[in-house]
Specification:
The protein has about 250 residues and is an all-alpha fold. Helices cover about 70% and strands about 0% of the residues. Helix 1 packs antiparallel against helix 8.
């Protein structure tokens, strides 16, 4: 859903789609710090913008007064129209400020809950962001590979090259090969890559973000895909090729 409602990201997006993409608590912390800085900057700029708006508002009011004194109907109408536009902008700005503050408050709550799970929390933020890259890319590349194995039976050549470049490539390939063997014997195998910190965050906040299961206003859910009936792209190609008429 693309509707922002005066926000950069909704709480659901922050918890499940942004932090939820991270594999390590330190990476989640880094992403949240970026978002925190963005919202804080937006709120700081809103304060200076408010002063500029006030100055423009006083200037327009002076134009209206001058136009009334000079009996200049055209200037008076234009000044009043400018004032109406500005008042609309002020109302929208108030909504934006309130939404930015709400978003920042939730980001700060997530940061507080992520902090105890961080591996490199004793380091400075700059050093911690660098230190977490190896683990984050390790789990990211493993997830990409195992996801592609489930869907296609193989994984992307570029991901394979990046895995080989990683310092822990041997252990990564062992995990991927173990998963591939399990997937070949169990068509219902599903990925379970959610880290502990994400599980804890969802326990803490999902009741605030998701409607009650008892609610009569819930929309009918879409049917779940039966993993046992999912056919890989490679298998489908082979099936189509075997069904082609021979000359």
């Amino acid at each position: 859903m693309n509707a922002k409602n005066n926000r950069l990201n909704h709480n659901f997006q922050l918890l499940y789609l942004i932090v939820g993409k991270c594999h390590t608590a330190d990476s989640a912390y880094a992403v949240l710090k970026d978002l925190q800085q963005d919202r804080e900057l937006a709120l700081d700029r809103a304060k200076s913008s408010e002063l500029r708006t006030k100055a423009k508002q006083l200037s327009i009011q002076k134009r209206i007064k001058d136009a009334e004194n000079q009996d200049d109907e055209i200037e008076l109408l234009e000044a009043k129209a400018d004032l109406m536009d500005m008042e609309s902008d002020i109302e929208l700005s108030k909504k934006n400020i309130a939404s930015a503050q709400d978003e920042l408050d939730f980001i700060n709550k997530l940061l507080e809950k992520v902090q105890p799970h961080r591996k490199y929390k004793e380091l400075s933020d700059r050093d911690a962001f660098e230190a977490c890259q190896s683990d984050e890319w390790k789990y990211e590349l493993i997830e990409r590979a195992t996801s592609n194995i489930l869907l296609t039976g193989s994984f992307n050549p570029e991901d394979y090259k990046n895995i080989l470049r990683h310092p822990e490539s041997d252990s990564m390939l062992n995990q991927i090969n173990d998963f591939k063997r399990s997937a070949s014997s169990n068509p219902n195998l599903m990925l379970d890559t959610k880290p502990v910190f994400q599980v804890e965050l969802e326990k803490e906040f999902d009741h605030l973000l998701l409607p009650s299961k008892d609610s009569s206003t819930l929309e009918k859910p879409l049917p779940l895909i039966d993993a046992s009936k999912v056919v890989s792209i490679n298998s489908k190609k082979k099936e189509n090729q075997s069904n082609e008429p021979t000359n």
